[in-house]
């Protein structure tokens, strides 16, 4: 099993349940881990035999531009797009962190983590 990761991808976006969150926006961090069984082994040195993490970043960046109320919805859309692009993946894990959320006191971040495991 091979694992490919994209961690600490940073975005400014307008996700949030409250109208002021959608108006002002804030900073987010996206972490993505995918696992799959390489068909031709890992020594082919060909991008077509692995997962292109530039495509993972492009999917995350595009979805971060689509304002949503819930982080769960954003993470779910990222997973759906990754699954559509790489149907052979065994598992996809997306963690979405909202930095400095608007709460009554200082909080570093809130986060949602979704994991999708392929059903055989």
TrEMBL record:
Annotated EC: 4.1.2.25
Reaction it catalyzes: 7,8-dihydroneopterin = 6-hydroxymethyl-7,8-dihydropterin + glycolaldehyde
Keywords, sorted A to Z: Folate biosynthesis, Lyase
An annotated GO BP: tetrahydrofolate biosynthetic process
Source organism, top-level taxon: Bacteria
Annotated PANTHER family: DIHYDRONEOPTERIN ALDOLASE 1-RELATED (PTHR42844)
Name this polypeptide is given: 7,8-dihydroneopterin aldolase
Taxonomy of the source species: Bacteria, Pseudomonadati, Bacteroidota, Sphingobacteriia, Sphingobacteriales
């Amino acid at each position: 099993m091979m694992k490919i990761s994209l961690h600490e991808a940073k975005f400014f976006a307008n996700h949030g349940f409250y109208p002021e969150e959608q108006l002002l926006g804030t900073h987010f961090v996206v972490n993505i881990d995918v696992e799959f069984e390489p068909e031709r082994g890992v020594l082919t040195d060909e991008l077509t035999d692995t997962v292109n993490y530039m495509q993972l970043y492009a999917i995350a960046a595009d979805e971060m531009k689509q304002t949503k109320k819930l982080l769960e919805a954003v993470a779910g859309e990222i997973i759906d797009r990754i699954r559509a692009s790489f149907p052979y993946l065994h598992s996809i894990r997306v963690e979405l962190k909202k930095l400095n959320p608007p709460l009554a006191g200082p909080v570093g971040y809130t986060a949602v983590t979704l994991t999708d495991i392929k059903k055989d």
